[in-house]
Design brief:
The complex is a heterodimer of chains A (673) and B (166). Chain A is mainly beta and 673 residues long. Chain A is 4% helix and 32% strand. In chain A, 60% of the residues are buried. Classes of the chains: A mainly beta (673), B mainly alpha (166).
């Protein structure tokens, strides 16, 4: 591959006059030296804090008034890149009356007046070919804010994997940071990124997390079901100095020769293996000085024959020192990962009381719908894990872990394996049709291994977790006052785990994800729907509240209106079907009294026009207490803040034909009629 | 069964077209020199019965071409099963159906043509995108027919995506 010289054109538009008129920025200076917190009505970090909680104690918006929320402002993101974006996943920050967020197909950064939505400044980097080659393109999930009390910075990671530091007031690059305001994250890797800086595969779409002046950078790659090679770039995690951009440390998520865990990769396979990064949000305990890394799968999501052994730290929760990156403890959630159970959600730091004893815990939501809870100082499970024997598969050349750890508590909050009991059964005819669809697949409990795909069956193993099930990047929420964790989950999104020999020239893997071609020739394929209905039975999506003091469920409710396709289906006429909820990603926000989350799908239910709904639940009981319509599904997790005595909720919406938009809600003025 | 409110929209649309037809018939004799524009109106109005994705709007051969293009361009993210993955939304199932229900194939075509694939948007021409849509429709259980789905915006806008079987 030819190496292209990397050129960057950076743009910053400062809208004159606005800054002088923004009292909020003066406020930011007054607050110098004090850290901003959600308790003050700010939202200074991606999840509200660096602890993954998505919690704010604001209480002006409550059960009695939620449904009367009005749109305060909208911010359409179409013009922030060369084309509109339909997948806006950001959660903004709000500090000192200014809202900061990423948006648009170039991942521009914008600063908006938090009261009016007026654009204060915009910054974007045109990374040319390097941006186009990004494994994780588009607007990303957010950015981070830092202040030393005198000045303030916004930091974000471009699609082309540069860390950029901007002046929070003006959006201008901080020239003393890195190389004129940018650190090229494809450089300073302990193993060079191949083949070159332009096309070398690595990136990150999350918000960098900052703890005590250290910026921690994740690493992400292309989807891993059909990699071109079992060799790939390695997803090392690094810490940088937020003032200078100097690299402070590197943690090898794939151990190098001589390091702990190297021998968990047989035949020195750690040398070739790649991926194993952290593509979701990273969590930091600033008081303890510890970082929690939820690590993804090694190269080859469904076939691990080129990497025999348990493969540390693949699909492990790793705790490292914030200052040095040195490992304190780790726990491998899935041994020898072959299910694509990437750790996909930010670990949640929870100070709880178990059996009368205070525990500093970390709770990890997962794709498999299991919450793994550890003492976050020692790494010891709060409730013991059982070592469960699992089925050994028959894929030639694969290496199988004989057992997998399963927590004794809490119970799984989403379906993970797929058995006959999970199939559609609205009517006897649909049940029969569902059985016919399922008969082409191998079913089984969690950790049923992938199969070689055969046209006459099984085409694949079915599992709910791997691609879109359970929890994913929106993660969960935690209420530090009640010690209850809230988890939105997808319960009916079966993934086919089938392997085929790759076509010539496509990959050097022995097997990649796919379906065997049908006997008559042509290309394989299999629908998993039953007359347009989901193969798995409802609820399709839920929110679960779990008390972390005792590991018990407090409540579980379906989340999302029953989809039109179900409500209006001919075969279901005359049946009374309780609300099914919806499959899809739903980030939750928890306030003093509410759990707030939007529908992942639009529906049409008279008298409401075609729309999705941003819903509020009583956080104590799960009872739905209000809702407002949004024009498209919630596509990024909501956040909240207060300015001038008014509480706001901002949510990103997009999807299908609707391009990305941030919408801010607030209550009507008391004197308005 | 289609949603009641959607039926209402259709009825309104048909009524609106009937009115346009009437207006056009009245207008033509009066404005002979404006015939070209009015011809278009008449043709549109004559086609008052709107087509939907249930009206066999693509051919099997086109869907086969589309499958080939899908596999090359789309499957790496959206997957052969169209179930999507972490980053790519599903192109089948309830979320996809509800997102596009009531929109036109012109909307869908433009959406794909201008934004996909994310690393090189715009590299596929109108015909290829129309072929991929044909395959997506076939995959989702819509019937094939004799004629191909047009690649032209005006024609695509005349076909409405309807989730529920009429």
């Amino acid at each position: 591959m030819i190496s292209h010289s990397f050129t960057s054109r950076s743009r910053c538009t400062l809208l004159a006059g606005v800054l002088l008129a923004a009292p909020s920025l003066l406020h930011a200076q007054r607050a110098a030296g004090t850290p901003f917190t959600t308790a003050q009505g700010e939202w200074p970090s991606h999840t509200g804090d660096t602890k993954g909680t998505r919690y704010s104690p604001l209480d002006q918006i409550n059960a009695a008034n939620f449904s009367s929320l009005e749109v305060a402002w909208r911010f359409k993101t179409d013009q922030l890149g060369p084309r509109p974006e339909y997948k806006l996943e950001g959660t903004p920050l709000m500090v000192g009356g200014v809202l900061y967020t990423t948006a648009g197909t170039r991942r521009a950064v914008v600063a908006l007046d938090a009261v009016t939505g007026e654009l204060l400044w915009m910054h974007s980097e045109n990374e040319g070919e390097r941006g186009a080659a990004a494994p994780r393109p588009l607007s990303g999930r957010g950015l981070s804010y830092w202040t030393d009390g005198k000045s303030a910075r916004i930091l974000y990671i471009t699609p082309g994997y540069q860390l950029i530091a901007l002046d929070a007031k003006t959006g201008v690059r901080i020239r003393t940071f890195g190389d004129s305001g940018a650190v090229d994250l494809k450089k300073q890797m302990d193993t060079p990124v191949l083949p070159d800086l332009t096309t070398g595969e690595i990136g990150y779409q999350g918000a960098p997390v900052i703890g005590r002046d250290v910026v921690i950078i994740g690493a992400a790659f292309r989807e891993g079901g059909s990699p071109k090679s079992y060799r790939n770039n390695k997803g090392d995690i690094r810490g940088f100095d937020v003032r200078t951009g100097k690299k402070l440390w590197t943690f090898h998520t794939i151990p190098r020769k001589g390091e702990y865990g190297y021998d968990s990769w047989l035949n020195n396979s750690a040398d070739d293996a790649g991926n194993t990064g952290v593509w979701t949000q990273i969590t930091v305990d600033e008081e303890l000085g510890l970082v929690y890394l939820p690590v993804e799968s090694p190269t080859g999501d469904y076939f691990g024959g080129h990497r025999p052994g348990n493969n540390l730290y693949g699909e492990s929760l790793v705790c490292v020192d914030l200052r040095t990156g040195v490992r304190k403890w780790h726990y491998q959630i899935v041994r020898h990962p072959i299910w694509d159970f990437d750790l996909a959600s930010a670990p949640i730091l929870a100070d709880i009381t178990v059996g009368g004893k205070a525990v500093k815990a970390v709770a990890l939501p997962t794709k498999q719908g299991i919450l793994y809870v550890f003492d976050r100082v020692t790494g010891v499970p709060v409730w013991p894990f059982e070592e469960r024997a699992v089925e050994k598969g028959e894929v030639p050349g694969e290496w199988y872990a004989p057992t997998q750890p399963i927590p004794t508590k809490p119970a799984a909050y989403a379906r993970n394996g797929v058995t006959l009991n999970d199939l559609i059964d609205f009517t006897p005819a649909l049940k029969e049709a569902g059985l016919a669809v399922a008969s082409r697949f191998k079913l089984g409990p969690i950790f049923t291994p992938p199969v070689l795909s055969k046209a006459d069956g099984p085409l694949a193993t079915l599992s709910n977790g791997p691609t879109n099930g359970g929890s994913n990047w929106p993660g969960g929420s935690f209420d530090p006052e009640t010690h209850i964790v809230y988890l939105a989950a997808t319960n009916a999104s079966p993934s086919p785990l089938g392997l085929v020999v790759p076509a010539k020239g496509v990959s050097d893997m022995n097997y990649v994800r796919g379906f065997a071609p049908p006997p008559g020739g042509g290309r394989g394929g299999a629908s998993m729907s039953v007359q347009g209905l989901p193969l798995l039975k409802p609820p399709y999506g839920t929110i679960t509240a779990i008390n972390l003091d005792n590991g018990e469920f407090v409540w579980q409710v379906p989340h999302g209106e029953t989809p039109d396709a179900i409500r209006n289906h001919e075969a279901l006429k005359g049946l009374t079907i309780p609300r099914t909820g919806q499959a899809g990603y739903s980030g939750t926000l928890v306030t003093k009294t509410l759990v707030i989350a939007g529908d992942p799908e639009v529906t049409t239910l008279a008298p409401r026009a075609r729309s999705a709904v941003l819903r509020a639940y009583d956080k104590a009981t799960g009872k739905e207490v209000g809702g407002v319509t949004i024009p498209a599904p919630q596509s990024g997790s909501p956040m909240t803040y207060a300015v001038n005595g008014k509480q706001y909720i901002v949510v990103a919406v997009s999807g299908g034909p609707y391009s990305g938009e941030y919408i801010a809600f607030r209550l009507p003025n008391a004197n308005s009629r | 069964m289609m949603p009641e409110s959607y039926r209402g929209q259709l009825r309104q649309r048909v009524r609106r077209r009937a009115f346009t037809l009437l207006a056009a018939l009245v207008a033509i004799p009066l404005l002979a020199s404006g015939a070209a524009a009015n011809d278009v109106e008449v043709r549109r109005a004559a086609d008052a019965a709107e087509r939907t994705t249930w009206d066999s709007v693509f051919s099997a051969a086109q869907a086969e071409r589309g499958q080939s293009a899908y596999k090359d361009a789309c499957a790496r993210c959206h997957r052969e099963s169209m179930a999507g993955a972490d980053e790519a939304p599903a192109l089948t199932g309830s979320a996809f159906m509800s997102a596009w229900n009531g929109q036109t194939l012109g909307d869908l075509h433009e959406r794909i043509r201008t934004s996909m694939p994310t690393d090189t948007p715009g590299v596929y021409g109108r015909q290829q995108v129309a072929d991929v849509i044909a395959y997506m429709l076939q995959f989702n259980g819509y019937p094939a027919g004799a004629a191909e789905l047009s690649k032209e915006s005006d024609a695509l806008k005349e076909v409405r995506f309807v989730a529920g079987k009429p």
